[in-house]
Design a protein that fits this description.
The protein is α+β, with helices and mostly antiparallel strands and 539 residues long. It contains 12 helices and 21 strands. Strands 7, 8, 11, 13, 14 and 15 form a 6-stranded antiparallel sheet that branches. A 4-stranded antiparallel sheet has the order 9-5-6-12, with no helix packed on it. A hairpin with a 5-residue loop joins strand 20 and strand 21. The radius of gyration is 44 Å and the shape is elongated.
């Protein structure tokens, strides 16, 4: 044993080389001389490169030969089911329930997107056209001027009825009312949505909702022609969702419908600002004399203290007390005045927390058609004093076919709003200028005017004297000349508006006889002293 170990230690390198040589020869035999991957097919050993040709020459040729053979009893026949006939049978079977898509996600008002219509209601196309929505009938056009509180939607009620200070501003406005003729709307819906085919299927397509009311205006240009039509943006009191365009994604449309359900009164009868002084929308103009204040002369330089400010008028004369007024400064609104249909709001089911003052959103035309027309209101507070406008309206209703299937062609069921025809134009209305002046008297080359200005809810009277070339206080009118009419020997003046270029003749005697001027003179308090301001005082 000792001799063997000594021999192994002496020749260990040769033993290692021998083992390495044996491993190398085995590797060459396994991976070079023999194929690494092979299969045995019909007694033949095939490599990876030989499998495909052998398959084509073998099993594929056998299959082709069997296919080309004439059919006989030795071949088993395959019977594939007729899926087309089965599908048509399921669709045409009147005893199977059909599914109709309703226009609302399941998260809104607890209504499912898909609902069963009993009796196979979706069988075939039953509606081939949409109704022609009748135009609204204009009612009253009211203009006014008010000192209003500007709302703050982010204001929060203060504990202990602490007064919430809100800014005030003078606003000129136009209020246009109209009526949606329910009898005419019922007639149009009956022609399309209440046909024998629709009734045979047991479908109620008579429910809809007012989605939008648009007020369109034209301004009369200086040449007397009407200007371009423009859609009035409305009062920016509370945020409103923009109306989705025709190509809007379905989720945008459904979000708008959800908003319309919860805020329908903001569509048909929007609220107005809190009025502190002046005209009240929807009420007759104020008949009692407005407070007219004469502008006092400036205090002498030696006066140590300024003239004390008169006490403010109590707000309760014009608006609720602060404890009763909403923190955001909004007036309460009212709905269209229709009874709520069975099931509640625009998409079936009542809307939590809306209250009766919000009014119903969805209504059944078949029931509402026997009731009074729906009153709608729109405001325009972007008018300019002294300018003349006229208005028309249109409204949009929810398409009862929207998002339904198998009831109407896709171009009809994909349209979510039915747009009414435009109403006729209202009469031209002129917004009262904020500054009105009359000729009070003349002396030599000087003309004395009484200028009345609406300022912060009060009508302020300012006597003013001018000569030819002077601009009348707080206006864009320039006194051009003072002349005498040789036909009746009466004095008159010529004026020109430096903004529009319009010229005007004022007969002094006619101004003095003007009923409006005489009423203002009766309301005005006699000047307490001091001379009338001149043109130099306003330059």
């Amino acid at each position: 044993m000792q001799k063997f170990l000594a021999l192994l230690e002496k020749n260990v390198q040769w033993f290692a080389l021998g083992l390495g040589t044996i491993l190398l020869l085995w590797t060459l035999y396994t991976y070079v001389l023999q194929p690494p991957v092979f299969v045995v097919q019909r007694g033949q050993t095939l490599t990876a490169a030989e499998i495909d040709p052998a398959t084509v020459k073998g099993p594929v040729m056998d299959l082709r030969h069997d296919i080309d053979r004439k059919p006989d009893d030795t071949l088993q026949k395959m019977q594939a089911p007729n899926y087309v006939d089965s599908f048509e049978n399921v669709i045409k079977n009147p005893g199977l329930p059909k599914l109709v898509r309703l226009p609302m996600p399941s998260s809104v008002s607890g209504v499912n997107v898909i609902r069963d219509i009993p009796g196979g209601a979706a069988e075939g196309i039953v509606v081939t056209e949409l109704p022609s929505i009748p135009r609204p009938e204009l009612d009253q056009t009211q203009t006014g001027r008010s000192t209003v509180q500007l709302p703050n939607p982010n204001a929060q009620p203060q504990p202990g009825n602490v007064k919430v200070e809100l800014p005030t501003e003078d606003r000129d406005w136009v209020r246009q009312t109209a009526k949606i003729p329910m009898a005419k709307l019922l007639n149009e819906f009956n022609k399309t949505f209440n046909t024998p085919k629709v009734r045979e299927k047991g479908i109620n397509l008579m429910q809809t909702a007012v989605l939008q009311v648009e007020l369109i205006r034209q301004e009369r240009l200086p040449n007397g022609e009407p200007g371009q039509e423009e859609v009035v943006p409305g009062l920016q009191i509370t945020p409103k969702k923009p109306f989705p365009p025709a190509n809007a994604p379905p989720e945008d449309v459904l979000n708008y419908l959800d908003w319309a359900n919860k805020n329908n009164a903001d569509i048909t009868n929007p609220g107005f600002y809190q009025v502190i002084e002046g005209d009240q929308p929807g009420k007759a103009p104020i008949q009692k004399p407005r407070p007219v204040v004469n502008t006092p002369p400036p205090p002498p330089a030696e006066t140590p203290h300024p003239r004390p400010r008169p006490p403010a008028k109590p707000a309760k004369k014009y608006a609720p007390q602060d404890a009763q007024r909403p923190a955001n400064g909004l007036m309460p609104t009212a709905g269209p005045g229709l009874p709520a249909p069975p099931g509640g709001s625009i998409f079936g089911g009542t809307t939590p927390g809306t209250g009766a003052d919000k009014g119903p959103a969805r209504f059944d035309v078949a029931q509402a058609g026997q009731a009074q027309p729906i009153d709608v209101v729109a405001y325009d507070d972007s008018v300019k004093p002294g300018h003349t406008y006229r208005y028309k309206m249109r409204y949009k209703l929810l398409n009862p076919l929207y998002q339904t299937v198998n009831l109407a062609p896709p171009n009809l069921s994909g349209q979510f709003a039915l747009v009414s025809q435009d109403s006729t134009w209202s009469d031209w209305v002129t917004v009262t200028p904020r500054v009105t002046f009359f000729v009070a008297s003349t002396f030599s080359d000087t003309v004395r005017f009484d200028v009345f200005t609406w300022e912060r809810g009060r009508l302020v009277r300012k006597p003013f004297s001018a000569r030819a070339g002077d601009t009348i206080a707080d206006t864009s009118w320039i006194l051009v000349d003072q002349r005498k009419d040789i036909r009746n020997n009466e004095d008159y003046i010529l004026l020109v508006n430096q903004e529009t270029g319009i010229t005007e003749r004022r007969d002094i005697a006619a101004d003095r006889r003007n009923p409006q001027y005489q009423q203002m003179q009766k309301e005005a308090v006699a000047d307490s002293g001091g001379s009338a301001p001149t043109a130099q005082a306003f330059r």
